[in-house]
Amino acid sequence: MLSIVAVAAAGFAFVATNGSGEEGTLQTVSRPQPTPTETAPAPVVRKPKPKPKPPAVDRGKVYVEVYNNSGIKGLAGTTAGRATGAGWQVVGSDNWYGTIPSSTVYYPAKLERAAKLLGKDLGVARLKPAIDPMRLDRLTVILTADYAG
């Protein structure tokens, strides 16, 4: 057993001195320094293309009818005048017979954006899809007693 330890120690000394036969001096082995690696380019993040904005509403190309569903005389006529003054193409005003809970701008699907703008122009917050017997080529405004105008 002692001889195995002696052979192992001799082998260790031989490797440590790099077989030079000089005892007590150790050879250092230099390792090549790693070269700086180029950093990988950052991945390209593609932002989704913004959706094109729809064209602005041309008030003069949108037909509007204004109806009075309140007991206030002349409400439809004066409101129609305000709408015309804002640039809308008012094609009629009259009385509405039926029950409407509050002043409303009714619109066909293709004129929803225009209805929002007309509602802002007139101060009418309630917007609803058009119903029968309303025409589907125009906005219909029905004013009730809650309309402050």
From TrEMBL:
Gene3D superfamilies: 3.30.70.2390. Residues 22-57 are annotated as: Disordered. It comes from the Bacteria. Residues 36-45 have a biased composition (Low complexity). It holds the Pfam family LytR_C. Residues 22-31 have a biased composition (Polar residues). Residues 62-147 form the LytR/CpsA/Psr regulator C-terminal domain. This is LytR family transcriptional regulator. It comes from Nocardioides guangzhouensis. The lineage of its organism: Bacteria, Bacillati, Actinomycetota, Actinomycetes, Propionibacteriales.
